[in-house]
Specification:
The chain contains 18 helices and no strands. The chain is mostly helical. It folds into four domains: 61 residues, no CATH class; 92 residues, no CATH class; 111 residues; 51 residues, no CATH class. Helix 6 packs parallel to helix 8 and helix 10 runs antiparallel to helix 11. The longest helix is centred in the middle third of the chain and has 24 residues. It starts with a helix and ends in an 8-residue tail after the last helix.
Length: 338
Amino acid sequence: MLLPQVKELLKQYTEEDLRLLISEMYKSIPKKMREDKDIDEMVTDIHAYKRIGKVNRDQNKKSDITELKPQIEQFIDFAYNQYYFAPNSFVHKKERPKWRFHVKNFIKELESIPPEGGKGKEATNLLKRLYEMLSYGCAYYIFNTDNPFRSVGIEQTALLDKVIVRLLGQGINDECIESAIKLVINGHVDRVTLPSDLIIVFINNLKTTDAKEMAIKQCKLIKKELIQTQENSRKKASSSEKYWNTEKRNNLTETIFRIHMSLCEHDEAIKYFHANYIECDNEISLYVLLHLLEDYECINYWVREYKTAQGKGIEPRAGLQKEYNYVMENEKFLDYWM
C-alpha cells in the first residue's frame, strides 16, 4: 500500500481506533527493528524525532567497544574453527549463512569509533583482525565461499586501506609501519586481487619521505627475520612453508622496489631487485622486473634492462620481444601487457 492510500484510510478512524492501530502495529514490530529504527524515540516525541532527522540520529549513536569486542572476538574464534562452515553445536545451521551480515555490521560499528585514544586503538585492532580473518578465508574454507570479501560486499584493497589509514593515522612510527607491512605480506588474496595491489595500497598511505624510508628499513628487518626463520627450519620445513617464505620475501622486495621508485630512486630500485628477487629462471625475473618498470612508465630503464639481459644470454619470451619492438618503433608501451 502506498503512503497516500494509508493517509486516506487513517481519516476514517476515530482517536480510539488510531490508538488501537498504533498499539497493534508496535507489537508486530520485532524488537531488533524497533531499536534499529528508533521506534521508541518516535513514540516518545514524534516532533523531536522529525526535527533531529535520521542522519543526526545515526551520528549520535556511539558504538560501545566494550560490548563489541567480546562479540567480535567470539565471532573470529568461531570462524577460524569453521563453525560458520561445517556442522557443529556452536552455530546453528540456519545462522551460518548470516556470517556476512555480522561482518558487515562489525565493520560499520568499528568504523564509527574514532581512531584516537585507547578505544580507537582497540577498534583499529579489531578491524585489522577482521581483515586478517577474511584474508585467511581466501585460502582456507572457513565460510561457504572462497571469496569472503565479495560476500561481505567490500573489495579487499578497500578494507585494507581502511585499516592502514587507521594504523598510520595517529602518527608514523616503526611499530605501526611494521604492523601495516605484515598485514600486507602475511595475508592471502582473493581471485580478483594481486599481492601487488595490496603493496600499492600500503605505499599510497606513505605520505612523506621519512615514512617511506622508515618503511624500507622495516621491510628489510622483516625480511631478515624470514631468512633467519628459513635457515633455522630448513631441515624440517615443508615445501609449502618454503614456498610461502619465498613469496613473502619477494613481496617485500617488490615493496622496497616500489618505494624507491616513488622516491625517484630508479637505479637504486633496480639494483635492489636484482640483488634480492628470488627466482631460478632468469627470464622470469626479467619479466617481473620489466612488468614493474612498465607500471612506472620508465621506458628508458625498461629498454636498458631488456638489452642488458640479452647481453647476458637471457632470451626474453615472445611477448617481451613483441613489446620491445613496439617500444623501439613507437617510444611508448603497448596498451596491454604481453
